[in-house]
Amino acid sequence: MHELSIAVALVERACEKVAELGDARVEALHLKIGRLSGVVPDALLFSWDVATQGTALEGSKLCIVEVPLAIRCDRCDAEREPPDALLLCPVCGEPAFDVVRGRELELVALEVEEHAADAAHR
Predict the structure, then answer these.
(1) Which of the chain's ends, N or C, has fewer CB atoms near its CB within 10 Å?
(2) Which of 1, 2, 26, 45 is nearest to 13 (CA)?
């Protein structure tokens, strides 16, 4: 399950950013995952608690936006979203290898609470 190694890499990157911010606590990490990325969102969510344990991200949420597959069909001269992962135009049936969206694995944002130590003492 390579999702655990992806979760660990995301945690490491986020921890570096938190260290730069100083006194901040991560509430959530926002991620975009494309249908062709090879990442299973449920497996990544399952791995998140394990990967964050004992880190500055422990207790944070992983928020995933799944990006649908979009291809460009040369024959139709249009962008299409096939219903499955096949690179075929759903309108004309022609192969379409120009992937417009769907390969993403993108860290979009860190949701942080600044001055975390002050907030914990209130």
Answers:
(1) C
(2) 26
Its pTM surpasses 0.85: no
Consecutive sets of 10 residues in the chain, 122 residues long: mean pLDDT of each? 91 91 90 96 96 94 97 96 92 95 95 68 44
End-to-end CA distance of the chain: 41
Map out the domains of the chain as residue ranges: 3-68+101-120
Going across the sheet that includes 61-67, the strands are: 61-67, 24-34, 105-114
- Topology given in CATH for the domain delimited by 3-68+101-120: hypothetical protein PF0899 fold (3.30.2320)
Angle at 108 between CA 84 and CA 69, to 5 degrees: 10
